[in-house]
Amino acid sequence: MIWLLALVSCFGLICAEEPFRHNDRVIGGSDAEPNTWKTQVSLQFDSSGNRYFSHICGGSVISSFYIMTAAHCILSTDASHYQVVVGEYNLAEYEGSEEFISVKRIIVHPDWNGDLGNGNDIAILRLATPIYANGYVEIANLPYPDQMLPHGFTCYITGWGSMDHFGNSPDKLQQAPINIVEHAVCSKPEWWGSLALKTMVCAGGDGIISGCHGDSGGPLHCFSDDVWRVHGVVSYGPAGMCNQVSKPTVFTRVSSFIYWMYSVMNEN
């Protein structure tokens, strides 16, 4: 359980005001078309040690050996408790496009301290075997160092987050368009205030579309410089109903951590 400024949070969701009941999913989204978001990963966890894995978070393929996700998705430092599934679309069916790969090593950002408001919510997983280029998987394009997108720029959030406050989850990958909220707006007191750092990306906040837990660690896809790039890693949002006005989904800004990621991958 994560705590933030003496407020209870729910696995990547900061408790803000709660005028509504809990409602979890890629809010306002729809089924993605199969084989569309090829960089998307399902990060799966086995708490029992019996090799029974279930989806807990999203992630992005950043090389044939590495996956990018959120630090708060790391529930154990024992890599044997994790597997990643690439080429996934329907979690309830085996479709022949999936690759199930064990995790060899977990590298959490050294400045992550469990406090979502402090930022640095990013981790890299080193796989035990490389991803096979089977036509259903791609390596994500990443943004330039410190690249920022303008206010109102439309991106896409994807994931398998649960669909309602009863915990019902979609089998098929969900997607939704979501607009960037610039830091000058997101850091206003009536928005996220001091919890919104420049190393984060805010998107949504219209009361219609948002991410939620279960989507944590997953990508924010933005078409910039003529290619799709993963500009964000789902980090936190409001507790209660996830699609609250002026409480956008907050992502770790990938462009702020490019040099760290490359140094980790070069060292390992």
UniProtKB/TrEMBL annotation:
Name of the protein described by the UniProt record: Chymotrypsin-like elastase family member 2A
GO process terms (BP): proteolysis
Gene Ontology cellular component annotations, sorted alphabetically: extracellular space
Classification of source organism: Eukaryota, Metazoa, Chordata, Craniata, Vertebrata
GO MF terms held by the record: serine-type endopeptidase activity
Residue span(s) of domain Peptidase S1: 26-266
Keywords associated with the record: Disulfide bond, Hydrolase, Protease, Serine protease, Signal
Pfam families: Trypsin
SUPFAM superfamilies, sorted: Trypsin-like serine proteases (SSF50494)
Signal peptide interval: 1-16
InterPro entries associated with the record: Peptidase_S1_Elastase_sf, Peptidase_S1_PA, Peptidase_S1_PA_chymotrypsin, Peptidase_S1A, Trypsin_dom, TRYPSIN_HIS, TRYPSIN_SER
